[in-house]
User: Which sequence fits this backbone?
């Protein structure tokens, strides 16, 4: 197996390893240990996690002044985005070159996403309630089942602790953008403690034209949006080690879009995301911890409500029950999991999509620690009423060369279930479509001495039975083509990251050298660059923090035939925060400061130079 990457990238990776191995010995005893949950479905120190992971903290979100979750993700290594216009419009998130529907998205353990498109509704997730975001790169089907080919993104909302705390924020900026939110957090003490965290917010903007001249649906008017949502977490400790929990999220986004020349009605879409989950966490024995969760996620999408022309509505619902048992065996952990998932789609405008399927899952994972040696093994079987039984497995090994330097390698299989559109949409879906399959191998070096963090990961993910739209369709009765298992794809590349603190300055950078290729045609995958990365310098002095960011991407193609090229771009962003009183702070952000004209989707507009400022009360 080979990993063809550019020669200069391979040399950079080698230099990283040499630099890490020759770092001062006294620096190797101060490794930073943050806690990661998503990589193993249980809390684990990051230094013991074999997967390639990244985290975005609440403090980073507050300083960034980002307008959406997609804006945050775009700055992370291994991630690219495509969006049909400004915030509030449809977005695709590619992890390591994988399609948007080849990634799993969770909010507090609740899986979100439409069963018809297979992708998450990113515009529905409110920023004000997010505590942190964890990104796990690479196949995770053995832990999360179908669709975890490129990776898993989990969003954790804030949890109540300590004395009652109130926070609030108000801001405004370019395109007449306005944001408001408020939250309350806290917990009671004692043996039967009760914790609570409630957040509500609204965001609105006049926006800009989502399309540009040359787009088939171009209309030069501004396309605004508004988003409002509430989230909450409640927890009740029944006894030491036994807790009941309730989490919920409700969000509604109303976004305008272009549909050609000016019309007598406002063309817009309304997307609703509703999550609710009940959980029970129980320390049954000192070495046995059990977590049971019953959840429902609903994705309701309506286009042009109140009109006849172009009206459509699709209601996608997922119900999940998971029972996870973690057994501590010395320094090792054995995990056993049972899951039941029901997907259901209701559509008054496309009755053929009105189907359901059920999946029962059994999984086992073992994480081992022996001195400098780390290892993990996992296997899973997903038995679906629609596509049958799928077995996946994974194994990884890591060796801690020093306290700060670790080398690791892993192999894993994965799959993606056909969406309801690919199965049942009239004139396009084919009920006999099979799941896509993936086989991934990767190797990495990670260095962290508490001051300097360096990382390099080389990966190759081979996908077969890829579902694509084929014309003509190999099945009779399909005039304009259909979704069918015909393609083979290879996702391979090198991801590098570096972070270093120099006194009051913090410098970070990441770069991706990748080649997401359709092996059937020999063409690059749509809207994915072979080179992309970002860099940032932040200066902190007391109550003031300022930063400069660069985001860069090489050229991409907007079509599978690779005839319509999207040019590369570099964006410059500036930001600053200042805490002017005990509980008060201000932030200002200037995005695309050079007013770069660029595209992430052909003839769809992106924001120009834009400014945003706000004031925050309370720190949580």
Assistant:
């Amino acid at each position: 197996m080979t990993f063809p990457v550019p020669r200069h990238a391979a040399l950079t990776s080698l230099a990283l390893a040499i630099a890490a191995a020759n770092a001062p010995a006294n620096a190797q005893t101060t490794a930073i240990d943050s806690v990661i949950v998503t990589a193993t479905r249980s809390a684990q120190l990051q230094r013991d996690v074999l997967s390639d992971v990244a985290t975005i903290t609440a403090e980073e979100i507050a300083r960034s002044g980002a307008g959406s979750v997609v804006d945050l993700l775009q700055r992370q290594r291994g991630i690219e985005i495509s969006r049909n216009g400004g915030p509030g419009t449809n977005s695709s998130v590619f992890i390591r070159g994988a399609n948007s529907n080849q990634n799993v998205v969770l909010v507090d353990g609740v899986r979100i996403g439409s069963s018809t498109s297979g992708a998450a509704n990113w515009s529905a997730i409110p920023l004000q309630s997010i505590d942190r975001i964890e990104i796990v790169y690479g196949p995770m089907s053995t832990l999360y089942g179908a669709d975890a080919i490129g990776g898993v993104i989990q969003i954790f909302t804030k949890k109540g602790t300590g004395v009652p705390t109130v926070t609030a924020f108000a801001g405004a900026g370019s395109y007449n953008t306005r944001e408001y939110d408020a939250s309350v957090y806290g917990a009671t003490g004692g043996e039967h403690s009760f914790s609570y965290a409630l957040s509500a917010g609204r965001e609105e903007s006049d926006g800009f034209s989502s399309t540009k001249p040359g787009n088939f649906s171009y209309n030069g008017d501004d396309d605004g949006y508004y988003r409002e949502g509430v989230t909450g977490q409640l927890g009740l400790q029944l006894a030491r080690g036994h807790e009941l929990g309730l989490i919920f999220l409700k969000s509604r986004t109303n976004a305008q879009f272009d549909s050609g020349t000016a019309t007598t009605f406002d063309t817009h879409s309304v997307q609703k995301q509703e999550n609710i989950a009940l959980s029970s966490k129980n320390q049954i024995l000192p070495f046995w911890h059990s977590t049971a969760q019953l959840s429902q996620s609903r994705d309701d999408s309506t286009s042009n409500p109140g009109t006849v022309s172009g009206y459509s509505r699709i209601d996608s619902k997922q119900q999940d029950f998971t029972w996870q048992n973690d057994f501590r065996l010395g320094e090792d952990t054995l995990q056993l999991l049972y899951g039941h998932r029901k997907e259901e789609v209701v559509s008054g405008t496309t009755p053929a999509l009105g189907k359901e399927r059920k999946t029962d899952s059994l999984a086992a994972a073992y994480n081992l620690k022996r001195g400098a040696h780390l290892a993990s093994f996992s296997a899973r079987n997903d038995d679906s009423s629609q596509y049958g039984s799928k077995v996946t497995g994974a194994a990884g090994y890591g060796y801690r060369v020093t306290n700060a330097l670790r080398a690791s390698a892993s192999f894993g299989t994965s799959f993606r279930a056909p969406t309801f559109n690919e199965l049942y949409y009239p004139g396009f879906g084919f009920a006999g479509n099979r799941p896509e399959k993936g086989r991934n191998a990767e190797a990495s070096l990670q260095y962290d001495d508490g001051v300097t963090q360096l990382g390099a990961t080389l990966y190759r993910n081979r996908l077969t039975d890829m579902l694509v739209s084929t014309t003509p369709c190999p099945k009779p009765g399909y005039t304009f083509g259909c979704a069918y298992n015909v393609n083979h794809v290879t996702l391979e590349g090198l991801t590098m990251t570096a972070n270093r603190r120099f006194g009051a300055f913090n410098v970070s950078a990441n770069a991706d050298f990748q080649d997401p290729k359709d092996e059937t045609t020999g063409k690059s995958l749509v809207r994915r660059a072979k080179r992309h990365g970002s860099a940032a310098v932040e200066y902190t002095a007391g109550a003031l923090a300022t930063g400069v960011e660069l985001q860069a991407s090489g050229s991409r193609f907007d079509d599978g035939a690779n005839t319509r090229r999207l040019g590369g771009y570099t964006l410059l962003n500036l930001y600053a925060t200042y805490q002017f009183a005990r509980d008060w702070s201000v932030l200002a952000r200037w995005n695309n400061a050079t007013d770069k004209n660029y595209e992430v989707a052909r003839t769809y507009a992106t924001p120009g130079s834009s400014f945003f400022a706000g004031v925050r009360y309370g720190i949580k």
